Amino acid sequence: MATHPAAVSPQPAHEEHLTSTGLDNVKMAMWAFLGSECLFFGSFISTYLLYRNRTNGGPDPAHIYDIPFTSVSSFVLLMSSLTMVLALAAIQRGDERGMRTWLFATAFLGMTFIGGQIYEFTTFYEEGLKLTTSPFGSSFFVLTGFHGAHVSVGILMLLALVGMSLAGRLSQADARKVELVGLYWHFVDIVWIVIFTVIYLVPTE
Amino acid sequence: MASSELHAPREEEVRHEHPTPRKYVWIAIILAIITAAEVAIYYVRALEDFLVPFLIAFALIKFIMVALYFMHLKFDSKLFRRFFVTGIVLAFFVFTVVLLTFFLRPETPGVTG
Amino acid sequence: MATAALQQPRRSIFARPTATTGWYSWVTTVDHKKIGIMYGVTAFIFFLLGGLEALAIRAQLAVPNGEVLTAEVYNQFFTMHGVTMIFLVVMPMGVAFFNYFAPLMIGARDVAFPRLNALSYWIFLFGGIFIYSSFFLGGAPDGGWFGYAPLSTQAGQDAASGLADRGMDFYAVGLQFLGIASLAGAVNFIVTILNMRAPGMTLMRMPVFIWMTLVVSFLLLFAMPIIAVALFELMFDRLFGTRFFAASAGGDPILWQHLFWLFGHPEVYILILPAMGIVSEVLPTFSRKPIFGYAAVVFAGAAIGFMGWGVWAHHMFAAGLGPVANSAFALSTMFIAVPTGVKIFNWIGTMWGGSLRFTTSMMFSIGFIAMFIIGGLSGVTHAIVPHDAQQTDTYYVVAHFHYVLFGGALFGIMSGFYYWWPKIFGHRLSEKIGKWNFWLWFIGFNLTFGPMHIVGLQGMPRRIYTYPDGMGWNVWNMMETVGSFMIAVATLIFLFNVAVSRRKGREEAGADPWDARTLEWSIPSPPPEYNFAEVPVVTHRDEFWHRKYFVGPGKTVEPVFSGGAVDHSEHAEHDGGHHIHLPSPSYFPVVAAFGMLVSAYAVIFALPAVAIGILIMTLGFFGWVFEPGTAE
Fold first, then answer.
1. Residues B85 and B57 in one domain
2. How far apart are CA C252 and CA C52, in angstroms?
């Protein structure tokens, strides 16, 4: 329940102490959801693995991937996990300003990553790899695009947190909200760790 | 309160021992070095034969480090870890089998590999 | 408390609705009981629709060379019959029972996320309407409920209207839509069951129905994403020209089969486990015995949940996976019959030596066991690969899955209706009419689906819209059609029972009409909005039974003397006296779900309009986050 303790009831409800397991409801829900997401990305990744050599006469992975470029954007996303966790550490010690800075940095790194992905997609299109070219093209674009959509949703949530903080609605007591967005963000990062290795680095044949 | 003792046995409540920001930065540096190593060995011809195991090992280390430290799984309830590990193991298991059925499929006339 | 004057300025556009009666209260409700009733009613309406489709199919097949339906309409009807019964009837019926009874049985006041719960319902309702609207927008899905590529990826034209054939677009988008509802529901119930239990309600004290709910929720959690991906790829193939399943470009239609059945087999257990949970509550109550081997039933349920992940390819024995894969999946499939068998023996053990009361609910539960054994046994015959090669795509398969899903799931659900009706509505359904309902339903069911075993083994393929004379199938098909109309009559009798029991000689139920065992019976019927005036403290499995009876000297069961029951006064200050905080109603779940509906239509008809849907959705979630916690 996303209650707003400060606005409504005089005392913030410490729900986590009222549950049977002593664990927070929303956090448990988030972890359950992330468990589910593993199957989501598992399905897309295995579709890709099945199709990576089926190029239908179009470009193949070995010739189209730009490893140095993707390495940089992978690095950017990896570092965004650091800024995210620093944002959480900031709000946990009550440093709202610091949190905003780190949240904004995270969102910025995320946007850089998305920008890189747009550039990559455009380049691939120009080199003749389209969504409709081959099973390889379809599975590549849909997998990485789906991941990009996850990053974009994460960016929106980060910016929403910054907005809430500026409106004075995100204090030390609400650190859990930052933690939840953080879990999501790190998960998206983890998925990219897998994608970067399995899709980009592991050579085909 | 009497009722709280009747609650189901709680999962351990070992929390609040999150790493310091300094430690987070160190972890990030290690992650960055591993990423650099991944990209580097990708270009080393001599390691070609061992490339895939190395890459997978590196990715695994990165994955586990982010999950344990940045996502706090190391410090949080075991239940969360179970949810997540169940998802990963299940996905790994079923999709390995799916891909095996494709790659080990007998070549029969009329069935394209 | 704040006065009206003080409250006034606080009422912003985000103020929460307060109505507790009238249609408006249903639209904005977050009460798990109201949502449960809405799930049940909606699913029942879809049950009638799916049933009408089945009747049309049977009318067409009653005699050789039938001319009731054209081939196109026939394809749409059998596809929609399957999609309806699985996704819009049996699944949501299970969810209806979860919603209403999971909180009551674990001693909670609501689910963990009441608004998410409302969102699930609205997505389900809109998803159902969305899929059914396809009949008017160029034809319904016609590729079978499992939508095998490449049949499902082909574009075509609807013969009747001349519109582009959008049927499978509606299938791909609509089922993704419904999947969101299931996923949200699954997360909600996992957290509710793990976190919202009353004090003392340990996992091994939970009623079996709750255990089954938990297993089903985990199955949904891990199975829905797989079908979502499959449908997503199908949608992209159809709408945006990707090559996932296009064999001409190197795509592999077998991948669809894998992804579909990876979901599809856990789905089978998603459909049956709620019914098994219901039966596990009904049998002990009407046998006046605790369930036999509680731990074994629970572990068998969990084992089915696990093993359900290792058997999917037995749906694909005819696809040419090769002998190794076929053998492995044949073995795992035979093994999964073991935990199912364990459950059946436990149910029989529960009745053994009990003082049985043959209420309508009990009869449906016993019917469940008998029919499910038949369906289970024919299922084991599918596990034998060469045997399966003969049965695949014949009426034998149709007979099998109707014995488990109708003879199993629907019998269990009917049993649940008769059992819990008094709790939900405060009055019983007539037992006399109920007996008619049961026997007609039971005989009609066997008459419909029994002969399908025979025609199936005689080689009658499923999904043919007509068949020639002289195949030796005529008599059986006529029997099946007669039987299906008997089921229809039985369904009407049920509706008649519902209507009559409300009015004439209404049998007020009281809190505990069946002398039952679990917590929901300890509160008034129908339950008050807050469920429990005082949150119960649980000390036993079958807690309510232990509050009513104790085992006296000489091992005789004796009632607890009045006043000797669990002393409530000690806990009264826990939350008695103060008004009980309940989640306030909210507009935003229905707004967010509506945004998704707009997006769904936009994906098919006008892609850019997806933005409008997303905008509405965003507004819905924005309001969701910013509305105050209570209406005050």
1. no
2. 36
C376 alpha-carbon distance from chain centroid: 19
The answer as to whether A6 is a domain residue is no
Q: Are B42 and B55 within one domain?
A: yes
- On whether residue B2 sits in a domain, the answer given is no
Tokens of C192: 């509710």
- Statement to judge: residues B83 and B101 lie in one domain: yes
**Same structural domain for residues B41 and B59?**
yes
Mutate to test the interface with C, among B84, B101, B108 (most CBs of C within 10 A): B101
C27, C431, C489 from A39: Cα distances, Å: 33, 47, 43
Burial class (CB in 10 A: 0-12, 13-18, 19+), C458: middle
Chain B interface includes C202 (CB < 8 A): yes
Cα C471 from Cα C275, distance rounded (Å): 38
**Angstrom distance (rounded) from CA C193 to CA C103:** 8
pLDDT of res. A112: 97
Which CATH number fits the domain that encloses residue A141?
1.20.120.80
The C-alpha atoms of residue A110 and residue C204 are separated, in whole angstroms, by 45
Q: Which domain holds residue B33?
A: 18-75
Count of beta carbons in the 10 Å neighbourhood of residue C475: 11
pLDDT of residue C4: 42
How far is C-alpha A147 from the chain's CA centre? 7
Name residue C87's amino acid: F
On the question of a cis peptide bond just before residue C527, with omega within 30 degrees of 0, the verdict is no
Considering the domain boundaries, does residue B5 fall inside one? no
CA A167 – CA A164 distance, rounded (Å): 5
Task: Residue count of chain A, please give it.
Answer: 205
- Interchain CB contacts (distance < 8 Å): A and B: 130
CA distance A66 to chain C (A): 23
**Residue C260 CA from chain centroid, whole number:** 19
Whether chain B has a CB inside 8 Å of the CB on C454: the answer is no
Asked whether the predicted pLDDT for residue C156 surpasses 80, the reply is: no
Q: What total number of domains does chain A contain? A: 1
Considering the domain architecture, whether residues B29 and B50 belong to the same structural domain is answered as: yes
Q: Which domain holds residue A155?
A: 17-201
User: Would you say residue B94 lies in a domain?
Assistant: yes
For B61-81, the DSSP string reads HHHHHIIIIIS-TTTS-HHHH
The reported pLDDT for the residue numbered C623 is 85
In which residue are the tokens 């947190």 written? A161
- The chain B residue lying nearest A26, using CA atoms, is B80
Q: Quote the CA–CA distance of A131 and C493 in Å, as a whole number.
A: 55
Task: Say whether both B31 and B64 belong to one domain.
Answer: yes
Say which of B2, B87, B102 has its CB closest to residue C222: B87
Q: C451: closest CA among C399, C402, C511, C492?
A: C399
CA distance B11 to B13: 6
d(CA A158, CA A156): 5
Please tell me the total count of domains within chain B: 2
B82, part of any domain: yes
Q: What angle do CA C476, C477, C483 make, to 5 degrees?
A: 90
Could you give the CA distance from residue C527 to residue C107 in angstroms, rounded to a whole number?
12
Q: Count Cα atoms within 13 angstroms, Cβ side, for A151.
A: 30
If one counts every other C-beta atom within 10 angstroms of the C-beta of residue C598, the result is 19
Task: Clarify whether residues B33 and B67 are in a common domain.
Answer: yes
How far is C216 from C97, CA to CA, in rounded Å? 13
- What's the pLDDT tens digit per position in C167-225? 999 999 999 999 999 999 999 999 999 999 999 999 999 999 999 999 999 999 999 99
What's the ipTM?
0.91
| Residue of chain B minimizing CA distance to C254 | B102
Asked if residue B24 and residue B46 are part of one domain, the reply reads yes
Chain A residues with beta carbon closer than 8 angstroms to that of C196 = 19-20
Q: Is the pLDDT of residue B112 over 60?
A: no
pLDDT attached to residue A14: 41
CB contact (8 A) between residue A56 and residue C113: no
